[in-house]
Amino acid sequence: MGRLRDRYGASPLHLLLVLCSFALTGYAGVRLLDGDTLGVVLWFVGGAVVHDLVLVPLYSAADRALRAAGARVPLGSRTHDEAAWREQINYVRVPAFVSLVLLLVWYPLIFDRVGHYASYTALEPGVFMGRWLLVTAALFAVSALCLTARAWRGRRALRRARRTGEA
């Protein structure tokens, strides 16, 4: 087991889960493209190429821009602590990531690209854009509430520490 962990870099359970996820994704691709083997291969290779050559640079640049903007933001009378900003930036990253994954998975419905899904979903094709926007707004709202609660607890703990003379 130790040799496998040294060579692979993670536990055997991780390797098993990765292989199972590839098998499930392959099965879904074959079912989706209904026996079009070339289409399945092109879909997987195209997905990997688009992700690595287009999406990774885009969200890396967006993340760098967000970090740079946060490093210059003054917070009250003191300058913004970069470590605190690194923790707080996740309250933007997570809902943005989930929203973009939902958009990537459901873009044909969201952008009304395929009409035949209406018979499968029993919904009008035009409702999906509004629903995706509502889900995105809800994700950011919940994230903002979590950040507010965290900041409130932090201030409360700081006040308590000051009253007891620990700060």
TrEMBL record:
Ranges annotated as spanning the membrane:
38-59, 91-111, 131-152
What UniProt keywords apply to this chain's record, in alphabetical order?
A: Membrane, Transmembrane, Transmembrane helix
Question: What is the protein name stated in its UniProt record?
Answer: Uncharacterized protein
